[in-house]
Amino acid sequence: MVYTTFENSCGVIPNELSDPELFRGGQIEGSECWEVASSDVDSLVMLLEPDFLSEGKRVWFSLKGTTSVGKEEQPTITTGPTPVVTIPRGWSTIVNKHLGYSLSVPSGWSVFDLRTGQLSQIMRFVDPAAAQEIDEILDSPEAEYAGHVAIELAIFSRPPISSIMYVGIAPLDDDIPTENVVKWLRDELESEELDPIEVHNLKAGTTNNLPSIRGVASADLSGQGLFDALVDITVLRANGKAYILVVVIQAKDAESKQQQIDQIVGSFRPE
User: Fold this and answer.
1) For residue 183, which of 220, 141, 228, 213 has the smallest C-alpha distance?
2) In whole angstroms, what is the distance from residue 201 CA to residue 203 CA?
């Protein structure tokens, strides 16, 4: 059960906690009050949710009542798990400060920040229709959450692209059950917009010390001038967001490219 100061107010609160601006390390004293079910009292924790203008992260406090001798216990601050990543030697690191993530790709991959329009500018020389599609997508409200695309070129092959990587985020409350997230992700992947894509598995677990969902899908991208593809999907859950990493390779290269995919995933983290 989630309680808020808005929906579960106690009414008038003596010495109510105000909402001033504090510098790092500042302190303030006051009272807050929620009306809660008696069965929840022994297991309550308090969540401080930063507003959309701040760069802070969620902070959790344990809530313990007064002891039998009247001594008030101090709340203990707890934070989420710390990401643990490995950056392969010689790889190029991508940092997106706007969306708050970083990862690395093999040296020689071409990297594009979707917010700058670089990719569509290049695509105009290759496939004007595809470039127009990209522009329309980037003009939509959803483009606010679009991050980077990286491409591994294969100059003497047809098509001249052997691997594609996409990174983005989506708002995702940390309290949403994992099974609901798995269903949402499967529905998104198998939607008509992404047709034809077939999801083979999606499993909840831990990646880089963070709660995650990983899975594999296949897609026939020949209609887009590409290839039969293996699609590797990783979703990290942190900070009230889903950090999404998709790596697309030619299906025929699935075995030889698996280590490289795992290394890319192993470098992926929220910032």
Assistant:
1) 213
2) 7
pLDDT 10s per residue in the chain (271 long)? 666 666 666 666 777 766 655 555 556 677 777 777 776 666 677 766 655 444 455 565 666 544 444 444 454 545 578 999 999 999 999 999 989 999 999 998 989 888 776 665 555 545 666 556 656 666 666 667 888 989 898 776 677 778 999 999 988 887 888 888 888 888 887 775 555 688 888 999 999 999 999 999 988 877 766 778 889 999 999 999 999 999 998 888 889 999 999 999 999 999 8
CA–CA separation, 120 vs 117, rounded Å? Answer: 6
Query: Would you state the torsion angle of the CA atoms of residues 201, 205, 211, 214, taken in this order, to the nearest 10 degrees?
Result: -20
Helix (H) or strand (E) holding 156: none
**Cα separation, 119 vs 167, whole angstroms:** 14
pTM over 0.85: no
Give buried/exposed letters for 120-154 (b at 16+ CB in 10 A, else e): beebeeeeeeebeebeeebeeeeeebbbbbbbbee
On whether the CB atoms of residues 41 and 3 are closer than 8 A, the answer is no
Number of helices (H), then strands (E), in the chain: 4, 13
Residue 106 region by backbone torsions, left for phi larger than 0, else alpha for psi between -120 and 50, else beta: beta
Per the listing, tokens 């991508």 go with 94
